[in-house]
Each structure stands twice: as structure tokens, then as C-alpha cells.
């Protein structure tokens, strides 16, 4: 089968190429999926540049989410059948014609949802939902601040926060030219990060601060986060987009005195330790899409051969929303 293979770490796309590799077969509790479409993620870029903890071994086939049809089920898998339309999280290997994953992380797709849409859902929307519900424990009317608001997860949060009863939604973006796209996706207030950010967030909340901060920027914005979080607020760190070693967390006294909690979230780790929670989130967002409560907008990439250029777009911070590539679909 054909797959996108990263042969060694690189800042560019020079070591990413399409190769013919062995087609996987499912072991116990696993399934293989004929991949119609696969999601492209910033996490692929973090793997490509060799960030610690993202690649088990080189060469590496990236790809963390797919939609397609079940090809084969392994021993002990009774709730999925060959030919069934499914969306799934993959532990890498999704950007290939046949993906291998655990059955517990594979979810049937409601009839109303296309394979293209379904492929863009697992990472973007399940991450956003779990961040809000499991990690940040969003309460009714809670104000939310999201960093990197114009990306895929950021745009999913723009829909989910109002859909599940949140309050004012504030987003930050890395460059002024990204403000418009975050506004378009639904943010009430969008601020380009830079001088005056703390004052701008406070002003947007009438001085009271935000109840929840969702931050994928390592620890680089943590001082800002602490300064704008209201008493009782929760800060969730869920990424390290800039790479490098995150700084130590603030001393306990600062958290005690500030009445704030800092937590972390990783959907990959949760998928390993509590896969049923991750699958439940995917089922819930697929149901919300099928019933018209969420709208997934994706940018369709023509083929696996075009994915390295998309990875570079994301690496340069020039991405906009969610990218999904056609793999074997003829649509
Ligand atoms: N923990 C989890 O389970 C989980 C799951 C999915 C994604 N994530 C993380 O969430 C973040 C957003 O993911 P996504 O899929 O929405 O990605 P995306 O659409 O590619 O957005 C990534 C954004 O990160 C920001 N950024 C900050 N520093 C950057 C740098 N040095 N290089 C490139 N971009 C940089 C840019 O936005 P600004 O310019 O606006 O800052 C960029 O648009 C990523 O950091 C990803 O690793 C975490």
C-alpha cells in the first residue's frame, strides 16, 4: 500500500515522501480501515521536526485520524464489521491507504455525515469537547480564553463553547492578519498577541477575567494566563506549538494565592489510558454534527502527495482551519 513516510526529523518537507510499505493486519482488539480521507494535524509537524515524545521510531508514518470503511477486524472485535463506515483515531499511520488502530477508538459514522467531514472530526472536535468538559469543567456562562484561536482546534472551540452553554469567548492569534478568520469562526473578541494583551482580555471581561484558559503554547503565555484568570478559574495546557522545553510551573503559593488551577490535556495519552472516554467524545460530536448542532468546515487536500506542502503551511503558522486529505476516495 501507499503511505506518507517521514524518513528522519526535519524542519522542512524534504524528508517526507510517498512510499510503498507493507499493508497492516489487525491483531486482537484491532481493526484495519481502508482510508477514504485522513485529517492533517499540527501534531504531524511536531513529529516531523522531531519534538520529544511524538515519534516512536523512524521512519514514521504520520496521521492521527481517518475516515473510511472497516477492512478487517482482529480477534475479539464483535461490534464492527467489514465494510462499515467508520471514523477513528490512529496512533500514527493514518496518512496511508490502510490504517491500523484499536477497535475501541473506532466509531461508526452516522449516515448523514460524509467521509470527508468525518475525517476532520476526531482530533479537532473531540479534543475541543474533552478540553471543555473533562479538563476545564466548563460551567454555564463561563468565560473562555483560547490561544491560537484560528487553528483547527480553535475553530472547533468557537462552535462548542456556545453549543454547550459557555459565556464570552475570547481568542488570541499570533498575527493581526489571522484576526478576521477567528472572528468569522465565532469568537466574540479576537486579540493579536503582543503588548497590552492582559489589559485587553481584562477589558473584554469587564475587569473580571476569564474562568477558563485553553492554552496550546507550552508555558510561554502562562504569566498572561495567570494574570487574566478569575478566582476559581482553570488553565489547561494542551500543547507546545513552539517546541522546546517548557518552563517549570509557577510556585504553589502563586496558585494558592491566585485561587487558580493549572492542568494538562493530551488526547493521545487519554486514548491510551481511557480510550472509552475519547470514543464517547467522538460519538457525541458526530451526533451533534448529524443533528445540525455543529458544522464542520474542512479544506480538502487533493492527495497524499500534497500533504507535505500542507505540513509546511502549518509549520509556518500560515494554516487556516482544518485540512483533510483525500487518500483512496474517488469523490
Ligand atoms: N493536547 C492534545 O490532545 C492536542 C490535540 C490536538 C491539537 N493539540 C495542539 O493544539 C494546537 C492547535 O492544533 P491544531 O490542530 O488546531 O493546529 P493548527 O490548526 O495548525 O494551529 C496551530 C497554531 O499554532 C500556533 N503556533 C504557535 N506557535 C507556532 C509555531 N512555532 N509554529 C507554528 N504554529 C504555531 C499558530 O496559531 P497562532 O499564530 O494564532 O498562535 C498556528 O495556527 C497545536 O499546538 C497542537 O499541538 C493538542
UniProtKB/TrEMBL annotation:
<feature type="region of interest" description="Disordered">
    <location>
        <begin position="1"/>
        <end position="25"/>
    </location>
</feature>
<dbReference type="InterPro" id="IPR036291">
    <property type="entry name" value="NAD(P)-bd_dom_sf"/>
</dbReference>
<feature type="domain" description="Enoyl reductase (ER)">
    <location>
        <begin position="12"/>
        <end position="325"/>
    </location>
</feature>
<keyword id="KW-0521">NADP</keyword>
<dbReference type="InterPro" id="IPR013149">
    <property type="entry name" value="ADH-like_C"/>
</dbReference>
<dbReference type="InterPro" id="IPR020843">
    <property type="entry name" value="ER"/>
</dbReference>
<protein>
    <submittedName>
        <fullName>NADPH:quinone reductase</fullName>
    </submittedName>
</protein>
<dbReference type="Pfam" id="PF08240">
    <property type="entry name" value="ADH_N"/>
</dbReference>
<dbReference type="Pfam" id="PF00107">
    <property type="entry name" value="ADH_zinc_N"/>
</dbReference>
<dbReference type="GO" id="GO:0070402">
    <property type="term" value="F:NADPH binding"/>
</dbReference>
<dbReference type="GO" id="GO:0016651">
    <property type="term" value="F:oxidoreductase activity, acting on NAD(P)H"/>
</dbReference>
<keyword id="KW-0560">Oxidoreductase</keyword>
<dbReference type="InterPro" id="IPR011032">
    <property type="entry name" value="GroES-like_sf"/>
</dbReference>
<dbReference type="InterPro" id="IPR013154">
    <property type="entry name" value="ADH-like_N"/>
</dbReference>
<feature type="compositionally biased region" description="Polar residues">
    <location>
        <begin position="8"/>
        <end position="20"/>
    </location>
</feature>
